[in-house]
Amino acid sequence: MNLTQTAFGLSLTLCLAAALAALALPRRARPAVAGALTAAAGASAVASGAAAVAGQGWSAWYPDLLPLLGVRLALDPLGGVFLAVTGAVAVCAAIYGIGYTRHGLAGRGVQAAMPLFVAAMLLVPAAAGVGTFLVAWELMAITSLLLVVAEHHRRAAAGEAGQWYAVMTHLGFAVILAGLAALAAHAGGDAFDEIRQAAISPVAASLIFLATGAGFASKAGIVPLHVWLPRAHPEAPSQVSALMSAAMVNMGVYGILRVGLDLLGGGPAWWWLLVLGAGAASAVYGILHAAVSADLKRLLGHSTTENMGLVLIGVGAAGFFAASGSRALAALALVAALLHAINHSAFKTLLFLAAGSVLHATGTRDLDALGGLRERMPYTTALFALGALAASALPPGNGFVSEWLLLQSLVNALPEGGVRHAVTMPLAVGAIALTAGVAIATFVKAFGVGFLAKPRGEGAATAHESPPTMLAGMLLAAAACVGLALAPTLLLPYLAETAGGVIGAPAAVTGEVTLRLGGIASTISPLLIACWLAAALVLVLALLRVFAARRARREARLWDCGAGPMTARMEYTATSFAEPLGRVFDNVLRPESDIDVIPAKESAYIVERVRYRARVADRIERRAYEPVLAAFAAAGRAATRLANGSVHRYLAYGFYTLTGTLILLAVIA
Predict the structure, then answer these.
(1) DSSP letter (8 states) at residue 260
(2) Inter-axis angle of helices 327-362 and 468-486, nearest 10
(3) Contact between residue 394 and residue 447 where contact means Cβ atoms under 8 Å apart
(4) At the N or C end, where does the chain have fewer CB atoms within 10 A?
(5) Res. 550 pLDDT band, cuts 50 70 90
(6) How far is CA 94 from the centre of its chain?
């Protein structure tokens, strides 16, 4: 029994113990005990995943646990990466949840569903058979759905989000089930080892890849299957939002990698061009909606679509390069994708937990009603700023390194390829560059409007700092962001070995302080960049202090155009900050605005009040989903005419159905 097996078994046992404790313990002790056990399970999963990445593989078959197929488990380096990331996110979310759930979320059901959700996510990358994978996937969907609707009795929006999530996640499960069942049927067995050895025709492999890819893309929140994500993530409790946005969506990426590159052996180039195109569209579409969103958690949800799009650009490029014979570039693109998935998990955990602290302290997540939190919530403000820097992909944030690696793999592909490279790579680079620029504006808005200046609402004016357990969860996520930003060289050799094993190529990244890319002349040292930036900042501050000391200090009132002291109403709001961006991308976003001008009673020419409302609807949802929903609603209304309460009619239905079935069986036989 090695460390991988021991730690993995311990993590599942602790999750089960946490669920039982949540059901058995009194309300006062429930969050602390269940949270501590879930955090311990996450830490154990990190150890198991790290051991698997380091080469301690493990596999097992328990034939009696699941009827007919049994339970097949195995951990290789690829599964270990996703297992360790999920465990790390679970540690932060569970500790944070001890303080957060004491405010109305300490019920038995919610507290028990949380560790079961974590256990399901740990089982997905460890599954080594189709049956085990599908059971774990469905358990993950059901437990996350229970957590999304945990507050439906308080907010109707949570119930609506749950309906969208339930429909989308089970449609995704249906196509994954169909694809994996076909794969097992062609292979003649359920085990992944048998599937790898099977000879599957190109047409069948393509159909299986398209079916499973659509289901996994739905879980990852990829356009146009993303519509559940900006609803479910904001409405779930904040620690659940962190788990869904930083860990669960990764399972969609894992599924594409496992089926496409591992079980199906790579496939033709067009598979991966499709993945790359979907990733680029998701990255641009997600960040544009994030830029114009005034809801803090909804903004972060759209940002998840953007970052999963960036990860899929790397995955698609890796598969495309591998199919084209450029194994070294394929390994580099896959390293960039894996590192960006890890980085996204770190900073999105921090941002969602910080957003939860804001919601906990102010009672609102509307950026237009926030502001002035810097003085009242100094620790949360500093931690959100750190997460915003990472999400902006600016140095020295951790998001910068992975996006730089991704750009290097795309830019250096041009000299090697033909027409497809010449068309695809510039478009992909352009999508990443556009995404990075809009992401900076988005997170400047989120931080500047939400935390600086004066409070624009009563909740912001009376805000208070979060309790220690919530701060501890955020601090752990912040430490992960800092570690990944300053010392990615500690992690990258293992990711390079993992990617090289999947692609069949040597390690694409080496170096202890300076990163060196295999076969490419580019190098980078994140630690030295951070040191240079810190030195430059210290120098600027020192110079300002020296010059300021030479001049006498004067205090003067800010120039206000004669209108009196500045008030909160004169500040930029999230809506006004994003208005220019909305105009620039008007053809994509199509913002809707409504202006009500209310005249005074005495004269129609004197304006008493002007009311302005702006809304950016999801055009994909409006064009693709609303007509389908309207058709189903119409069919439902028409179906009510069939059920008029007459017993005679119902007996007739039964008679005609039975007769028709017998006739059909007779014809078939």
Answers:
(1) I
(2) 160
(3) no
(4) C
(5) confident
(6) 18
Element of type H or E holding 400: helix 398-411
CA 67 to CA 49: how far, in whole Å?
Answer: 28
Q: Cα angle at 465 between 464 and 468, to 5 degrees?
A: 140
Mean pLDDT, residues 287-312 taken together: 94
**What whole-number percentage of the chain has pLDDT above 90?**
63
pLDDT in tens, 373-410: 999 999 999 999 999 999 999 988 988 999 999 999 99
Residues near 415 by Cβ (< 8 Å), separated by ≥ 6? none
Cα–Cα nearest to 234, from 146, 170, 141, 299: 299
Q: What count of residues does the chain have?
A: 669
Q: Which residue has the tokens 């399901």?
A: 120
Q: What is the pLDDT of residue 416?
A: 61
Residue 186 has a CB neighbour count (10 Å cut-off) of: 16
Amino acid at 88: A
* Backbone phi, psi, residue 370, to 5°: -100, -150
| pTM beyond 0.85 | yes
The closest of 391, 394, 381, 392 to 354, measured between CA atoms, is: 381
Domain boundaries along the sequence of the chain: 289-303+333-541+570-586, 622-668
Q: Closest Cα to residue 595, out of 582, 585, 609, 581? A: 609
Q: Kindly tell me if the per-residue pLDDT of 288 is higher than 70.
A: yes
Q: How far is Cα of residue 604 from the mean position of the Cα atoms in its chain?
A: 51
508, 500 contact by CB (below 8 A): yes
Q: Which two tokens stand for residue 101?
A: 């759930």
| Distance of alpha carbon 412 from alpha carbon 115, whole angstroms | 44
**Which pairing describes strands 523-524 and 592-599: parallel, antiparallel, or unpaired?**
unpaired
Task: List the beta strands (DSSP E) in 544-629.
Answer: 592-599, 607-615
Buried b (16+ CB within 10 A) or exposed e, 485-518: bbbbbebbebbbbbbbbbbebebbbeeeeebebb
**DSSP H or E stretch at residue 450:** helix 419-451
Secondary structure string (H, E, C) spanning 196-238: HHCCCCHHHHHHHHHHHHHHHHHHHCCCCCCCCHHHHHHHCCH
Token output for 524: 């980078």
One-letter amino acid for residue 187 of the chain: A
Q: How far apart are CA 379 and CA 388, in angstroms?
A: 14
